[in-house]
Amino acid sequence: MSTTSEIAGYEVQENLGVVYGTCSTVNKQGDKGGVKKSIWNKQDARMDYAVGEAMNRLSVNACAVGANAVGGLTVAVNESEGSGVASFRSTGAVALGTAVRVVESSDVEA
Fold it and tell me: Which distant-in-sequence residues (6+ apart) come within 8 Å of 18 by Cβ?
């Protein structure tokens, strides 16, 4: 995966279209207990999880269309919090890019 439209050392042979992956986490403020509380009550842990899962889903979606790489990768994260009866913390992430089929530059015929 690359954030640029070009991948160093490779040449794009086929553009397969836009692919994306998303993930959203929600934690009610009242949740108690072991692992869930220790992970979900930490903003950085929720963000790491949401971004990682969105990237994994992006990769699966790219493979599903026959890609062996993704260019132009963009990741966006949103954090929101509610209060009162609907007290919660939510983190969402979307990873978006262009699915491509690439070959090493030395494999490209002139």
Answer: 96, 97, 98, 99
What confidence score (pLDDT) does residue 17 get? 96
Segment 38-57, tens digit of pLDDT? 555 677 888 888 999 999 99
**Cα gap 86→16, rounded to integer Å:** 42
Q: Is 81 helix (H, G, I), strand (E, B) or coil?
A: strand
In contact, 91 and 43? CB cutoff 8 Å: yes
- Residue by residue, DSSP assigns 8-31 as TTEEEEEEEEEEEEEEEEEEETT-
The Cα 31–Cα 44 span in angstroms is 18
Cα–Cα dist 91/45, whole Å: 10
